[in-house]
What does this fold into?
Amino acid sequence: MIYENFIRVIYIDLSTGKIKIENRADLCEYLGGVGVASKLLEENLKPELDALDEGQPIVFAIGAASTIFPVITKTVAMFRSPLTGELGESYAGGRMAMTLFLAGYDAVVIQGKAKKPVYCY
It folds into this structure.
C-alpha cells in the first residue's frame, strides 16, 4: 500500500479452495498496479500451457492513486490473452480498487478452476 513498506497480495486457488496472503516488500519497486500486476503475472505464468488452461493466472492490482482520490480509482487485470497468446490487460474503474484497498490488499492472483460457481468476498 502507499503508506506501507510492502505490497499485500492474496493468492486464490479455485481448484483447491486455498488462500494465501503475502506481504511482498520486493514488489515496492514496481510502479502502480500495472507494474505490480506485470511482475506477479511473470512469476505465476506457465508459458508451456494454453492461455485458457486452468493453471494460468489472472492478476488484479490497484493503481497507486486509489488511496489518494477515490474518484480516480483503477484496477488493472493482467493475463495471457487467448486471442494472441501475448500479454492481455484490461482496466476497470469504480468500486473494485477501493474495495480491495479498504480490505487491505493491493493485488489478487487467481488460478485454478472451481468445481461449481463460486464468488470471493
Q: What stands out?
A: Strands lie at 7-13, 18-24, 58-62, 74-80, 87-93, 107-111. The mean pLDDT is 90.
